[in-house]
Amino acid sequence: MKRNTNKAKKILEDGGLVIFPTETVYGIGCNATNLQAIKRLYKIKKRPANNPLICHFSDINYIKKNFKLNKIAYQLADKFWPGPLTIILKKKEDTKIHPMLSNNTKFVGCRIPKHPLAQKLLKKLNFPIAAPSANISNKLSSTNTSHLKDFFDENIYILDGGKSFYGLESTVVDIRNNKIKILRLGSITFEQIKMLIPNVVISHNYSKLSPGQKQKHYSPNLPLRINVNSVLEGEALLNFGKNNLKSKTKELNLSLTENLEEASNNFYDYLHKLDNTKSIGIAVAPIPNKNLGKTINDRLFRASSN
Ligand code: TXA
Ligand code: MG
């Protein structure tokens, strides 16, 4: 296993790209203050330039120096950082974080990852890491290093941190004007945030505030049918819990005991596996629309839409 954070540090300092683990999904990162590196990252990921990148920090001190934090920001940071929450914050004037990574706006998605290897790397750097999920734009995210092998043409150094703990991306929130909106559901649930800040809402105006949230996204190569009550001839099955659904091709069960944490953890891995079978498509069993099930359904909906 490659776990050499000194090598990764050197590559990032020289303007290169590194794939690194986080507790949500793997990220492909670069120096957030280096324009050339950011351009390279957009290119290799085939990502539209208007879709901003999340900045990853080792701790809140750098964030406090470079961004304006309101009351909600502090409440969320206290509760969920380090961890799978991305808060969109307004930059101060004198920051070195390059405007290209936020589509030339002052609003940057900020996150402090909890994964020990990501932390170890970030602590060695004197700049934040700009990083989207390590996959080609609109394709499945990667939750272990075996998922990465088909994605990138170039050889990129991979820090191997094993299997991601959560398995779904971070929750992205907008907190402008002291109102809180979830722009992307993720590993922190709507219900968890609501316990802390009762007036939280889920934004359905995704594409405007968060261009990455356009519909076709997070998708396997095979067509996906969701909420199925039967499986077609030749379809693989992504199942959940105990039921009468059956596939003659291949079946994987996200969680036999209907545990949504377990299902989240298996989600991308099982989609990658079913996508690599010779099936005509993937049928997906209904998933309860609560807690992490809301996030899973959000991903399934986008992956299945045209
Ligand atoms: O868990 C995660 O969030 C992973 C790990 C690597 O941190 N990263 C990730 O990044 O999923 P990405 O680029 O695949 O998805 C980030 C999402 C996109 O939908 C993007 O549009 C939105 O967050 N986003 C990022 N910065 C934003 C900003 N400044 N304003 C609005 N939306 C933003
Ligand atoms: Mg992504």
Calculate Rg over CA atoms: 19 Å
Instruction: Give the overall shape, derived from the CA principal axes.
Output: globular
What class, by secondary structure content?
Answer: alpha/beta
Compounds present?
Answer: threonylcarbamoyladenylate, magnesium ion
Unreliable stretches (pLDDT < 50, length at least 5) are none
Mean pLDDT: 95
End-to-end gap: 38 Å
Give the percentage of residues in beta strands: 15-25%
How many helices does DSSP assign? 9
Query: How many distinct beta strands?
Result: 15
Give the helix level as a range of percent: 25-40%
Q: SSE order, as H and E?
A: HEEHEHEHEEHEEEEHEHEEEHEH
Largest sheet: 11 strands, mixed
Comma- or semicolon-separated keywords:
single chain, 306 residues, alpha/beta, 11-stranded mixed sheet, 4-stranded parallel sheet, 9 helices, 15 strands, binds threonylcarbamoyladenylate, binds magnesium ion
